[in-house]
Amino acid sequence: MQYDDKPKDECGVFGIFGHPKAVELTYLGLRALQHRGQESSGIVASDGEDVSYHHGMGLVDAVFDSDVLAKLKGHIAIGHNRYSTTGESSLGNAQPLVRNYKHGLLALGHNGNLVNAHYLRSHLEDAGSIFSTTLDTEVVFHLIAKSRRASLEKRISDAFRAVEGAYSFVLMGKDTLMGARDPHGFRPLWLGQLGDAYVLASETGALDVVEAKPIREVEPGELVTMRSIHRGIESSRFHQKQPELAQCIFEYIYLARADGEMFGQGVNSTRREFGRQLAREDPVKGDVVIPVPDSATIAALGYAEESGIPFDLGLSRNTFVGRSFMNPTPDIRELMVKVKLNPIRDVLRGKRVVVVDDSIMRGTNGRKLVKIIRQGGAKAVHLRIASPPNKHPCFYGVDTPTRAELIASSHTIEEIRKYIRADSLGYLSIKGMLEAVKAPQDFCTACFDGNYPIKFDEHSSEQLHLIDSIS
Questions:
Q1: Does the pLDDT at position 340 exceed 60?
Q2: Is the CB of residue 174 less than 8 Å from the CB of residue 126?
Q3: Is 394 one of the catalytic residues?
Q4: What are the chain's domains?
Q5: N or C end: fewer C-beta atoms under 10 angstroms in the chain?
Q6: pLDDT-wise least confident of 239-248, 261-270, 369-378
Q7: Helices (H), ranges, 136-236
């Protein structure tokens, strides 16, 4: 459930090569990825000679209408939905970015966050580069343009060897579609096929919408290139040594659609196992299990199945409520939560309610949530969280509060329980979470334990060498 103290979604990327309706399919793909970003949207298309593009602020269906889509033409297209984790929210920062440089036109869309972007940008500006956005993504453009390598693949590989952090990229030239994933594999990126056409997407749900068959995930540290239907998919590696995988565990907990597959497992089955494991670790006597809609619904089903407590829907969510641009007083702010969530009284009245949520960040809305359930007539409210306590911010593309704002970084579980005024509070353990996904060595858990796979505050002379060696 996305409300004020929840982590915000990252970005969604989509690309298609070799289809006469590439623009329309990209639009549909972006609609399927709307949950990953709601600030801005953009599509870039090419017919092999001319390139057309359009960006706008807001949701996909607000940015693109039939007249706008009719002006975009080509059999190659890439699209992007943005949620800003780096760079301000503005039209100038909308992606895909489009630039002309000495080798022609290049467009790119980025999901993730480059942790050494500020360092690289400062060095590039000292060398004379001029930036037109506040995006970490633009650093990649400058590194590609700086390279003197002969092929586009090698120029892009040079750039990716210099950057550090989380990224899944879709890139497009006039006659080429490319996709790349960082060597740690933080962010998902799928490769699919639709007839003779090839498709790239952040999640399999977007492939399903356009009726493309999933082929496989782009591998960490891999660059895939499509420049001819007859040549198929070309693959290359831009890192000689494969670092340890650090796939984002929060994709399973909250970010991804439940109908998707990523990192080798189904999101639905993994989320459900989180709930089952939570019930095993932190059982409680109750009359009904309810979810906080929508991302906690599957975990709540798992909790109910394991515990034997009946599952029901005890909260009604207003799906038509978007962002609020009010500057409300505290009393109005509290009422605004009820615009999004309202209790279903005949489910809650007189019951010991076990409510399952996916996470707690600041705790402010957890407190409001408990109040709403009590107002619905609940006799007791037992809050269960289908993830461990969030104690550390994410630097790899998920917009979480600072450590000072994360309630679990400075409060015990009992102190949090008292603050949110629940009868009991329980979290899934880190060990239990990793057992649920069956592959504990493959995931980044930094938001829970502070073990960051990439150091974001140390930059070595080796990075300077990489930047300088590009030219």
A1: yes
A2: no
A3: no
A4: 12-246+460-470 (3.60.20.10), 262-441 (3.40.50.2020)
A5: C
A6: 239-248
A7: 138-146, 152-162, 204-209
